[in-house]
Amino acid sequence: MLRVKILFVGPSEAGKSVLANFLSESTEGIGSYIPTQGVRILEYEKPHINENSKGTEYRFELWDCAGDPKFETCWPALMKDSHGVVIVFNPDLPSHLKEIEMWYSCFVQQQQLLDSQCLLIAHHKPRSGGDTENLTLASPLNRLHLIHSSLEEEPEDVRMEFVKYLKSIINWMNENRDKEEMSIIT
Hints:
The protein has 186 residues and is an alpha/beta fold. 32% of the residues lie in helices and 23% in strands.
């Protein structure tokens, strides 16, 4: 079984824990807001998520990282061996639009991850009535794949987009493994 480590990062109160719980089908912590302290790791298995994987099964680790900057000293340890980053933000809060540039710089650029290994989720809180059409992101964030999530209105659309993202991460991992094997052979 192959392990896939995905970090959920972003500003405090963006909805990272709610999304991680939903996507991993966990019922942990449903209810009132409780700030994540450091990190929570949610594990789940998705057998045969990739048609090209020859029956390989995957264990996904969703690392729900605290959005509070007081945990910044932990970030290097959290980033170690990660395969992808999901940046979650509340598009209704202007401060979040500024903060996500810092999250991108720290967790994607400093790790030298590809933009395809990053997913942006504009998470709309219940009854926010947020605008999903007119969201303008600064460069380089405007090159990233962006999805809007509203677990009230279209929860399965969010899940389908996340599964597409996981498949792209698996394809990237398989390509890297194949290149590594070829370099050993030659």
